[in-house]
Amino acid sequence: MFHHAEFHPILLSNFPLSSVRRKQCSEGTLYLETESQGTCKELAHVRKSVSSILIAAVSVSLIPINVSLTSNAQAQSSTSNVSSNLAARLEAQVKQAGFKKDEIGIWISDGANVIYGHQVDKRFIPASLSKIPTAAATLALLPQGHKFKTYFATAKDNSSVGRNLRVASGTLKGPLYLIGGGDPGFVSETAWFLVNELVRTGVKTVEGDLIVDDSRFDAIRFGEDRQSQRVDRAYDAPLGAMSLNWNAITAYVRPGVETGAQAEVVLDVLSPFIRLQNKTKTVQAGKGFNVSIERLKSDKPEEGETFLATGTIGLDQPEKAVYKSIREPAMFSAQSLRMFLESRGIVVKGTVKQGRAPKPVAELAILATAESKPLPMIVADMMKWSNNYVADMLVKNLSAEVAGSNGNTSDGIKRVREYLERNAGLKPGSYEFINGAGFTRDNSLSPAQIGAILTAVRNDFRIFPEFLASLPIAGVDGTLRSRFRGLDGAGWVRAKSGLLNGTIGLAGYSGDDKGRIYTFVLMFNGSAGREDAARNLFDRLATTLVKTL
After folding, report:
1. Could you tell me which of 285, 266, 277 has the C-alpha nearest to residue 310?
2. What is the DSSP string of 144-213?
3. 210 touches 172 (CB < 8 A)
4. Distance separating alpha carbons of residues 275 and 308, to the nearest angstrom
5. Percent of the chain residues topping a pLDDT of 70
6. Cβ–Cβ under 8 Å, residues 45 and 29
7. Would you say 97 and 544 are in contact if contact means Cβ atoms under 8 Å apart?
8. How far is CA 301 from CA 30, 330, 458, 506, in A?
9. Number of CB atoms found within 10 A of residue 154's CB
């Protein structure tokens, strides 16, 4: 007896199907539902409607199909049992953790149904979980494989530029324009590539100025959507269409050669724009690392930045990196590029200053171009390490892609919100999203809303592979590299973390060795000092999804 739920479409081409349902038929017959009715058809009748080759396909496929039907029924029952048992285990862990009811929000789905929820509709401060909407909107709204471009250019009618953009005399008349394209990943290596491209034009001398044009974005370096208090830490770096090294410098500190000697402090960028005052001292072994580096106040940061290093370092201490932000991205970038040019034998006779190219890029003579990494890799830079700077730069780029609009945070955030409402079904007024990085306490989203965003991404094959690859892997890399130690969730959980004082978040996907994938959102807003307990709970909950039994 065969219980046939899904028959090969070629074999049943003579019997149009509106649906096929399980039905008991006598031996030697198959149940077929046509557009108007269902009936048991004799196998002989089916055989007459197909070729002799397909008869073999019928006989070969009958038994596996029957097994598949039985397996599907068993699988549905098994899935139901797994979900029920899983929900009970999750509930027990949440209760055991001892948090107040309104401090925790949880939303977990198996892809088809929500299998566990706690405070799913309450709005929480998401912190860096805010980067999930930013990543999703960026991947969906910008072209696949999109790259940002940075240029060296001059006027199209510059007489010193000949065929094939060669500067045969070696001297470029007039100014050289450095035009920023909003690349969040423009670093020293990219700068070297751009300079080497220019070298091949034959330029040896620039008679005029080096003019940096960062007009792709507005001039607002720190948006109102960020927290109002500025700090000199790298996570609070300014924004600019022409930026370098995430608009931050790295100071490498190691002990001097002997006790009493000055510690060695080396900056990663050699530029007249950056100055260092070193007032450190090496002390005896066992005294630890007590060096601090601060950016000194200045009324004219566009002319340069001074960093002061003070404190002591033990003779046995390893090298340590300290990260600090600068305040004027365009001038920092241009002054650094001038040094790179000089190191390759190109002398700029004029000064370095900020301005605008006389015409759009398409109407200039482009002497050198440096492309960014593909967009998915830039999104991964943001997600893996929770980079606020990259998030805010991507938001401005979303705005800049609108014809006639320079990049600004307000319009970029508007595009993210439009994506959330159109693709994830969020209702206007039901959430707050004013900062794409989450470096604010004014964003608010519910676990169910973040779950809807993750589900929308999961259902969009155009962007889901890249989005999934951008997430930190538990116990392996990014912000989760030191978490899930000793837990089975290591390697099986890919999720974005979030952290502010009194705020912890973890949201993404977890899989198990049976091929099940769960989408989850875990949020804590509560008393400062309970963050570690929330983080540990969330790691255990995500691991429970891996060990579904």
Report:
1. 277
2. TT---EEEEEEETT-TT--GGG--TTSEE-S-EEEE----TT--HHHHHHHHHHHHTTT--EE-S-EEEE
3. no
4. 9
5. 84
6. no
7. no
8. 82, 11, 45, 38
9. 26
**In this predicted model, what pLDDT tens digit does every residue of 256-282 receive, in sequence order?**
999 999 999 999 987 889 999 999 999
Which residues does 206 contact at the CB level (< 8 Å), separation at least 6?
172, 175, 176, 341, 346, 347, 348, 349, 350
Q: Which of 4, 150, 142, 138 is nearest to 67 (CA)?
A: 4
* Residue 434 CB contacts under 8 Å (≥ 6 apart), including other chains: 225, 413, 440, 442, 443
pLDDT at 403 over 90: no
Question: What is the average pLDDT value for the chain, to the nearest integer?
Answer: 86
The pLDDT tens digits for 161-175 are: 998 899 989 999 989
Residue 373's alpha-carbon distances to 182, 270, 292, 379, in angstroms, are: 12, 24, 34, 10
Instruction: Read off the pLDDT of residues 299-343 as tens digits, 9 standing for 90 and up.
Output: 888 889 999 999 999 999 999 999 999 999 999 999 999 999 999
Whose tokens are 């116990």? That residue is 475
Q: How confident is the model at residue 187, as a pLDDT?
A: 96
Residue 438, classified by CB atoms within 10 Å of its CB into exposed (0-12), middle (13-18) or buried (19+), is buried
Q: Which residues pair with 306 in a beta bridge?
A: 275
Tell me which residue of 454, 452, 531, 540 sits closest to 493, measured CA to CA.
540
Let me know: does 392 contact 437? Beta carbons within 8 Å: yes
In terms of DSSP H, where are the helices of 353-498?
Answer: 375-385, 388-400, 409-423, 447-458, 464-470
Tens digits of residue pLDDT in 70-123: 444 444 444 566 677 888 999 999 999 999 999 999 999 999 999 999 999 999
Phi-psi region of 345 (alpha: psi -120 to 50; beta: other; left: phi over 0): left
What is the chain's Cα-based Rg? 30
Amino acid 394: pLDDT: 97
Could you report the per-residue pLDDT of 133-162, keeping only the tens digit for each? 999 999 999 999 999 999 999 999 999 999
Quick one: angle between helices 447-458 and 131-141, nearest 10? 30
Question: Using the 8-state DSSP alphabet, how is residue 305 labeled?
Answer: E
**Half-sphere exposure for 453 (CA within 13 Å, toward CB):** 30
User: DSSP state, 11?
Assistant: T
